[in-house]
Amino acid sequence: MSQAEGVNVKRRRVLIASTAAIGAAGVAAVATPFVRSWYPSAKAEAAGAAVVQDVSSVEEGQMIVVKYRGKPIFVVKRTEEMLATLESVTPLLLDPDSDASLQPEYTKNQGRSIEPGLLVVEGVCTHLGCAPNYRPDVGAADLGGNDWYGGFFCPCHGSKYDIAGRVYSGVPAPLNLPVPDYSISGTILTVGEA
Questions:
Q1: Taking the CB of residue 162, how many other CB atoms lie within 10 A of it?
Q2: Start-to-end Cα distance in the chain
Q3: pLDDT tens-digit readout, 82-91
Q4: Can you list the residues of the chain whose pLDDT is less than 50?
Q5: Quick check: helix, strand or coil at residue 74?
Q6: Is 179 exposed, middle or buried (0-12, 13-18, 19+ CB in 10 A)?
Q7: Which fold has domain 44-191?
Q8: Where do the domains of the chain lie?
C-alpha cells in the first residue's frame, strides 16, 4: 500500500463525514417547518384554539394554571372536604346560583363544574381584571376567619371567591369567576370546546 492510497482513504472518510453532517442539517432544516405546520397558527391560537391538558398528575387540593386566549385558566382538583364547604358558604355569596355570571349551561350547579372534583374557571377577577390568589386554607384569619372556607382572594381590591369561584357579598367584584367552555374525557381536559 502506497502513501498516496492512505491519503485518499483519509480524505474520503472526511468527505463522507462532512457530507453526512451537512445532509443531516439539511433534513432538519426541511423537517422543522413541516412539523411546525401541524401546530395551530398564531391567528388560530389568538382566536381561541382549544387547549388540551392531562390532569392525571394534579393532586387533590392542588391548582394548576393553563393559558387560553391569553387568560389564565385555574384548574383545581377539589377534595371531599372542599366540596363539603360549598353548602356552608352559600349565605355569604352574592350570586350562589350563578344566575348573573358567565358559564355554560352544563356547569349550572353548586360546584360550577362537569365533574364535582374538578373546577375550571378563568383566573381573572371580575372587578378590574387582576389575578386572584388560590387560598385553600380554611379559616384564614386575614380572610375572615370562620367565614373563610377556602377559595380565591384578589389582592388588588380584596374580592373573595369560594372554592367554586362564586363571589362573596360585600366585595368589589360584581360576578362569579367565569367558567370557559370545556370538556373532560378521562384525565384529558380540553378548554375551548364543549
A1: 25
A2: 75
A3: 999 999 899 9
A4: none
A5: strand
A6: buried
A7: Rieske Iron-sulfur Protein (2.102.10)
A8: 1-39, 44-191
Catalytic residue among 157, 187, 193, 194: 157
Q: H helices within 37-140, ranges in order?
A: 42-47, 80-88
Residue 112 CB contacts under 8 Å (≥ 6 apart), including other chains? 98, 103, 119, 121, 164, 165, 166, 176, 179
At residue 6, the pLDDT reads: 54
* Cα–Cα distance for residue pair 159/175, rounded to 1 Å: 10
The pair phi, psi for residue 175, each rounded to 5°, is -135, 165
Question: Tens of pLDDT along 13-25?
Answer: 888 899 999 988 8
Q: Which three cell numbers stand for residue 127?
A: 372587578
157 given a catalytic annotation = yes
- How far CA 82 is from CA of 50, 163, 164, 184, in Å, comes to 28, 7, 9, 20
Q: How many CB atoms lie within 10 A of CB 145?
A: 10
| DSSP code string of 129-189 | ---PEEE--TT-GGGTGGG--SEEE-TTT--EEETTSPBBTTSS--SPPP---EEEETTEE
